[in-house]
Specification:
This protein is of the alpha/beta class. It is built from 10 helices and 15 strands. It folds into 2 domains: 142 residues, Medium-chain alcohol dehydrogenases, catalytic domain (Quinone Oxidoreductase, Chain A, domain 1, Alpha-Beta Complex); 140 residues, NAD(P)-binding Rossmann-like Domain (Rossmann fold, 3-Layer(aba) Sandwich).
């Protein structure tokens, strides 16, 4: 039987365990395309899965890694042929379907995006689910009708993967970006990405008033809980906030005051099952609009052998920006 290197998560009496193994190709799940993976990433979800800190994994054994990029080795799908460069984010990969932190992946062709012109596989994974989510958030605010002339935009969890790329994209679109972070030492880093103001996350993370002083016209929130509640409570009349994360919690402890007194809207962002036309449009915009020098500045590369170490670091809040895992 053929084998390949992978991180394997198994269920144990104590919870879960993760280890590097020679994974048997016979254990791969159904799919019409085999991809030789060259790059993956470590996202917060991957950190939770590998460390067992959150209920991310839905079947065992599991290969984590919600992102992957590489080259098609085998395909029975008309849309792809051997040698095609592809990327994949979402669709439950790394959660319910064997994921990208491995030398090989077998997936459904309906999940794959052709590598956009102008992006390398490493670039695509520097962006990954985090950057894709950030782009969907920006597109949602634009579709809602908001523009830089309406006022500032706040980005929470700004030093993380979603936040860092959101700051870049919003600055490039002309917004005055207010970056919220709990790591004041990252202030210069965030300003280099385009943040005009830095605020301490403590201003937003504690229980607040039902309605606060209107400070921004729009927001991209990757934190949830009290932070999202306070962002909404401080959003201007007829503004909107794109909610795309839950680093602080899944709860939303607030009143309806911002919605019925200011007409504020909450825009939900789903990067996992995003329809393919919207997915392709987002990746096209990312390839066009995202500054490569800024992308490089927020990206750290790690060899496959360090992926599990990085998973622990991201859960502990020690990772800035994006981490690309060089698989092959």
């Amino acid at each position: 039987m053929s084998t390949f290197r992978a991180i394997r998560i198994d269920k144990t009496d104590q919870g879960t365990s993760a280890a590097y193994v020679d994974f048997d190709e016979a254990e791969l799940m159904d799919g019409d395309v085999d991809v030789r993976v060259s790059h993956s990433t470590i996202n917060y979800k991957d950190g939770l899965a590998i460390t067992g800190s959150g209920p991310i994994v839905r079947r065992f054994p599991m290969i984590p890694g919600i992102d992957l990029a590489g080259v098609v080795e085998r395909s029975s799908a008309p849309a792809f042929k051997p040698g095609d460069q592809v990327l994949l984010t979402g669709f439950g990969v790394g959660e319910g379907h064997l994921g990208g932190l491995a030398e090989r992946a077998r997936v459904k062709s309906d999940w794959l995006v052709p590598l956009p012109e102008g992006l390398s596989a490493a670039d695509a994974m520097s962006i990954g689910t985090a950057g894709f989510t950030a782009m969907l958030s920006v597109l949602a605010l634009e579709k809602f009708g908001l523009a830089p002339a309406d006022g500032p935009v706040v980005v929470t969890g700004a030093a993380g993967g979603v936040g860092s790329i959101a700051v870049c994209l919003l600055k490039a679109a002309g917004w005055h970006v207010v970056a919220s972070t709990g790591r004041p030492q990252e202030g210069e880093y965030l300003k280099s990405l385009g943040a005009a103001e830095i605020i301490d996350r403590a201003e937003l993370s504690a229980p607040g008033r039902p309605l606060g002083k209107a400070r921004w016209a729009a927001g991209v929130d990757a934190v949830g809980s009290h932070t999202l509640a306070n962002v909404l409570a401080q959003t201007k009349t007829h503004g909107a906030v794109a909610a795309c994360g839950n680093a602080q919690g899944l709860d939303l402890p607030m009143t309806v005051a911002p919605f019925i007194l200011r007409g504020v809207s909450l825009l939900g962002i789903d990067s996992v099952l995003c329809p393919m036309p919207q997915r392709l449009a987002a990746w096209s915009r990312l390839a066009r609009d995202l500054d490569r020098a800024q992308l490089a500045a927020m990206t750290t590369h790690a060899p496959f052998a360090r992926a599990m170490d990085v998973a622990h670091e991201i859960v502990q809040g020690k990772v800035r920006g994006r981490t690309v895992v060089d698989i092959g």
